Every structure is written in structure tokens, then in C-alpha cells.
Prior knowledge:
Layout: H1 4-37, H2 40-66, H3 72-106
Helix pairs in contact: 1-2, 1-3
Amino acid sequence: MMTAPDxxxxxxxxxxxxxxxxxxxxCLAALGVALTRQDAQAVDEVxxxxxxxxxxxxxxxxxxxxxxxVPPLLRQRLATASGQVAAQREAxxxxxxxxxxxxxxxxxxxxxxxxxxxxxxxxxDRSGTSGGTLLA
Length: 136
């Protein structure tokens, strides 16, 4: 059974951890909205706020873990938020890769003629390669 001072400390600890965790959750929600709207400026702004909120939350949770532990419910919420960050990072990486592929199709990079590709008349263009003899 917890004593009154222990209960007060537990309530205070939950209160101190709730604020930074809620800030992370709010930023994640705002980032999802910004990504859905494809608002690049909002994504940049929210991502910066999310970064700061995550740093603050990690700091608070690390201090709480050193001084007696983190309540399981808040630990679970932090793990869920971490999973959401990973999922959004993965979705953004996929979208970036897709955009890069589309850009490569629309704006192909010029390949040097010495790359062994076919020339204008269907023969292999070897104008840039140096000739020589093979030694056995």
C-alpha cells in the first residue's frame, strides 16, 4: 500500500511525464495532417517541433527511469509514439524513393557514350574506350 507522500510523488511523476508525451503525440498528429495535405512548409515546421518534443520526452522519461521507474501506461504510450515515428519515417522514405524513380524517368541523367551502350546505328559505341591488345 502506498503512503500519502508516495502517492503524491507518483501523481507528480505522471504529471511531469504526461506533458512532454502529449506534446509528442500532438506533433505526430499534426505531422500526419501536414503529410496528408502535402504541405511541405507545415511538414518542415511540425518536424522541427516533433524533434524538440521527442528530445524533451526522452529526457523526462530517462530522468523518471533513474528515479524510480516509468508507469506502464506511459511507457506503452511512448512506445506507441515511437512506432508512429518509425512508420511515418518509413512512409516518407518510400515516397521519396518513388519520387526519385519518377524523376529518373522524366529527367534521365546523361550517360557517357563510353558506357558500352548502342550507338545511333545500332552498333556498340566504343568511341571513348581505349584499344589495345589482350595479353595471355
